[in-house]
Amino acid sequence: MSSLSQTTGYAILALSCLEVGDGENWILARDVAACTGIPKPYLSKILHSLQGSGLIRAKRGYRGGFALSRPSSEISLLQIAEAVAGGAVFGCCLLGLAGCSEDQPCPAHEFWSMERERIRKRLAKTTLRDVARFERDRGGLRLGSCSAGGGGDRG
């Protein structure tokens, strides 16, 4: 079965770490990396991509870093996935067949079309706040290591 990409998963984890800053405190990329375990060079690319999509803000210099651009309860997992993967959140054909289309459907086309829509609806309904709370409750992220109010390390 299809799943979200590793990059999308990393983006969700990174934003979950930023959720502790509640949009008012700037969190350094190195602190997000420590919080999530994502390699810093890869994380920097993800954060800059998320900034370009408008999900986060970045501030250079003293007390700079990254912050959510709106409350975590207003950011869906679908918005994050689309920001990272563009329109290709889900593969076109479940079986990977190039010729599969509405006009020439493969044997799994109808099933995959319905499942894609069901997954899309679930991702649209699930918020970043839901994930951050889940991670905090289970101790999955080292959210305490995400410190706010950094000092200009954006990259």
Could you give the topology of this structure?
Elements: H1 6-18, H2 29-36, H3 40-53, E1 56-59, E2 65-68, H4 77-85, H5 109-125, H6 128-138
Describe, in plain words, how this protein is organized in 3D.
This protein is mostly helical and 155 residues long. The protein contains six helices and two strands, in the order αααββααα. It has a two-stranded antiparallel ribbon with strand order 1-2. It is elongated. The two termini are 34 Å apart. The relative contact order is 0.23. Residues 147-155 have low confidence and may be disordered.
Name the beta content range.
Answer: 5-15%
Instruction: Quickly give the structural class.
Output: mainly alpha
Total beta-strand segments: 2
Q: Strand order within the widest sheet?
A: 1-2
The radius of gyration computed from the alpha-carbon positions, rounded to a whole number of angstroms, is 17 Å
Helix content: 40-55%
Task: Based on Cα principal axes, name the global outline.
Answer: elongated
**Oligomeric form:** single chain
Largest sheet properties: 2 strands, antiparallel
Order of H and E elements: HHHEEHHH
- The number of distinct helices, counting runs of at least 4 residues, comes to 6
Distance between the termini: 34 Å
Summarize, please:
The protein has 155 residues and is mostly helical. Helices cover 46% and strands 5% of the residues.
